[in-house]
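BUG-342 | component: ligand-complex export | severity: low

The export step for MRU jobs runs without errors, but we want the raw record kept on the ticket for reference. Input record follows.
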Amino acid sequence: MKIGDIHHLTILMKDAVVYMIDQNKLPFIIEVKAFEDYEGTCEAIRNMTVRGAGAIGAAAGFAMAQGFLQGADPEYVRNLIRATRPTARDLFFAVDRVFEAGKISVQTAVDEAQRLAELNVEAARKIGTYGDTLIRDGARILTHCNAGWLGFVDYGSALAPVYIAHRKGKRIHVYADETRPRSQGARLTAWELANEGVEHTIVPDNAGAYLMSKGMVDLVITGADRIAANGDTANKIGTYEKAILARHFGIPFYIAAPRSTFDFETPDGSAIEIEQRSQDEVHYQTGPDRDGKIRTIRVTNPGSEALNPAFDVTPAELITAYITEYGIFNNPADLLQLKNKG
Ligand code: MRU
């Protein structure tokens, strides 16, 4: 990821220490946090210091490797990691791979965690190359949440095609849904796009129908947290609404995700566990005041209850195609070809 002129990774592990950009503080403060043990890395996943399916997959693999390095009970560490966030498939994919590798040796576990992080970058780059073919010069793209650099070790899923198209010189404009309650679109996607010099506009979550009805959106691309065997896709809450709107207005709706997000053991979306997060995320917002002091303020009626499901499931029938590192799949039935890959 480009910050100024320097290339950064969202997360990495060096000498048993996991380093990650603190996404809770972006874009107001750029800080890299270091976690020396699996307990700290687990907590960072839970409190969303690191977030986004690909990035928490890498974090989970690193946490499992740290568990082996610390000589902790592997079964206990695996369960602790699995309990941090339930919806993103990448987390379970990585933790299981590193757990199995650790049965050979501690070094094998560390190597596997590093290999998965490298594959994460490679898959994202390929998703970008395939996805770029769907973007014409002058395209206006709507995206939801953050499935960019910060959601992966690098590049991202939904935004990888955007970055590649932009670097090729295509003129594109991205509408970044604000993505309440945590505002990953307004804070993180907008920050990434600004760093890369991609023309963009932050839009309220409820502006989708307005934009589409005015002919301002050519395609929608989002990432995914878990894709069931029939193609039903869990992603950030609000994604389903965009897919319904896109169908209504005849606009293509694409899901971009690597093999590690596909869960062939889950038959359809109804079996995907949806993470329920604290209602405080709805009630409070954090950011700098006019004097630059970071403050957390209440923005809802004191005493009212809030509901905070973190994801929803878009039925496969609303998805035009899936952009993966193995190519673009228009028919959900063809996704089963991915089962034996990776
Ligand atoms: O709760 P988050 O911020 O981890 O949710 C992120 C998303 O829903 C992204 O759209 C998803 O992970 C796509 S792939 C990075």
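Assignee comment: Attached the raw record above. Residues 2-124 form a domain with the Four Helix Bundle (Hemerythrin (Met), subunit A) fold (CATH 1.20.120.420).
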